Amino acid sequence: MARELTDTKEKPVSAVTGTETIRRGPAPGRVGNFVFKGLSSGAGILIVVLLGLVAGFLLYRAIPAITATRDQLEAVGFMRGESLLSYVLPLAFGTVLSSVIALVVAVPLSIGIALFISHYAPRRLAQGLGYLIDLLAAIPSVVFGLWGLSFLQPRVGPLFEWLSTNMGWFPPFSGYLGPAKNIAIASLVLAVMILPIITATIREVFLQTPRLHEEASLALGATRWEMIRQAVLPFGRSGIISAAMLGLGRALGETMAVLMVLAPGFLVNFYILRPGQHQSVAANIANQFPEASGLGADVLIATGLFLFVLTFVVNLAARWIINRRAEFSGAN
Amino acid sequence: MSKRIDVSDLNVYYGDFLAVEGVDMVIEARSITALIGPSGCGKSTFLRTLNRMHEVIPGARVEGKAVMDGMDLYGKGVDPVEVRRQVGMVFQRPNPFPTMSIADNVLAGVKLNNRRMPRALQAETVERALSGANLWNEVKDRLDRPGSSLSGGQQQRLCIARAIAVEPQVLLMDEPCSALDPISTLAIEDLMNDLKDEYTIVIVTHNMQQAARVSDRTGFFNIAGTGKPGHLIEMDDTSVMFSSPSEKATEDYISGRFG
């Protein structure tokens, strides 16, 4: 061994591999590094290109509808002689209303389920429940639509009726008319649909609460619930908002379930128990597109563009809310 | 505002595993007790049994007695939450709540007991606790800044302020300086000397100079081998422990021959 070392006095040799310790040329592994860098940058660029293509298509096809004259639009049967803006606004309103009600129902429920899984349930039960929630996310929306139509609708009817008779002084609850094909049931179906994604996201965030902070709280004499309020919820706040936005994004774009349970209308009001008042953008496109042609199709695509922009704005707003208090977040 | 703790024949289990066995110890009021010993000897585990924080780990349980001025910490019907309000704790790594301001961090524990605190009383509590933790002068102009904006040493003193704001009887410190630089360490040690007039302090440390500098009494924990339970080998006045310990193992450890 000693002799070998003296033999190679001029070139330093690694005792382990017996090769020169500093070689000329690229080190091994450089090619893999290069390939991986290319692949990941490519994937990053691809998503931007795809988004651009979708936006470009929507814009390109929407322009004829946006620039069309009043007379041309009147020729489109389903618009009943309205301008593009007054056609799309009730749709946008119905979309946002149903999504917001769905969020109001789903987010507190999701936080509860996520907390149960992450901090209350015994580990075995928590695991099973987690799988179950993920499974719920895999159910196609048409199945949710069927379920809403044939299971939920007859069952919530009496509840809606009770609300309407006893709390009808509150305008949104007034004037229920069966069968329940109103925006309230559409929102409930949406809530069930977005529940899994919101719950799964929030659960992951809660599970990542630093043990350090939980122990800090417990050591001060906090009960479990106080610890959750002090350490878990503040830490998970931005995660909860992100999760809600994910759910909102899905609810805004959901087509099939809304199409199946809702009796459509084109009004702007808050009568959530009356049928034939509201319609969502996506469901309307699905409803009208098969028979639309020419300018009619362009109008529908323009409403699609509007939905695209709406979702975009909602996401930006969420980012802004999260970043506003970034300094106080758990991320540092 | 400080009490002594009498521990007798205490065993700590993690599930079926016996982690610490047969500890008898008297922790005097208004003094600093240091616990030293090699890693894994159970001194931190033992420390956590004094405010029942070990119960956070599923399966952890205790046999034996720990009595604080007549109250058995493990007595029937004693709520661990109540124990922790009497026995505060400072951790190895500074852990202020990142979503709270400096002032809110100090008040975090107080507000658990007293939801609707008048503003004046809040301000008074914040100043008293921060002054008590030697931090007031450094942060009084930025009480509404996040706690995480402070340096590591300041954060640790903020955690001490948070712990003493609830006016506990006993303060447990689990290697409070091991993540800090020497100057911050000195600040914490000075602070401990000030605090011992009012509180019973128990500190776990790997730094034997620190134990020698700050503590009145020292306990040495050791472990016979991996998988064996930790024992309290010897406990005595710090001066005796570091000059003429009666056990060979203590002498070996203190003189750096193992561990």
Features:
heterodimer, A: mainly alpha, 12 helices, 71% helix, B: 259 residues, alpha/beta, Rossmann fold, 6-stranded mixed sheet
Rounded average pLDDT of chain B: 91
What separation lies between the terminal Cα atoms of chain A? 51 Å
Question: Mean of residue pLDDT of chain A?
Answer: 87
The portion of residues assigned to helices of chain B is: 25-40%
Q: Strand-and-helix sequence of chain B, N→C?
A: EEEHEEHEHHHHEHEHEEHH
Provide the CATH top-level class of the domain at 5-95 and 169-254 in chain B.
Alpha Beta
Radius of gyration computed on alpha carbons of chain A? 28 Å
What is the SS-derived class of chain A?
A: mainly alpha
Number of domains of chain A: 2
What's the assembly state of these chains? heterodimer
Low-confidence stretches of chain A: 1-8
Uncertain runs of chain B: none
**What share of the residues of chain B does DSSP label as strand, in percent?**
25-35%
Full CATH superfamily name of the domain at 5-95 and 169-254 in chain B: P-loop containing nucleotide triphosphate hydrolases
- Report the principal-axis shape of chain A: flat
**First-last Cα distance of chain B:** 36 Å
Task: Identify the strand order in the major beta sheet of chain B.
Answer: 6-7-8-3-9-10
SSE topology sketch:
The complex is a heterodimer of chains A (332) and B (259).
Chain A lengths: L1 H6 L22 H38 L2 H5 L9 H37 L2 H15 L3 H26 L16 H25 L3 H9 L4 H30 L2 H6 L19 H8 L6 H30 L8
Helix pairs in contact in A: 2-12, 4-5, 4-7, 4-9, 4-12, 5-7, 6-7, 7-9, 8-9, 9-12, 11-12
Chain B lengths: L4 E10 L2 E11 L4 E5 L6 H7 L10 E9 L2 E2 L7 H7 E4 L11 H12 L5 H14 L3 H4 L12 H14 L4 E5 L7 H14 L4 E5 L3 H7 L2 E7 L6 E8 H6 L4 H7 L5
Parallel strand pairs in B: 3-8, 3-9, 6-7, 7-8
Antiparallel strand pairs in B: 1-2, 1-4, 4-5, 9-10
Helix pairs in contact in B: 3-6, 4-6, 6-7
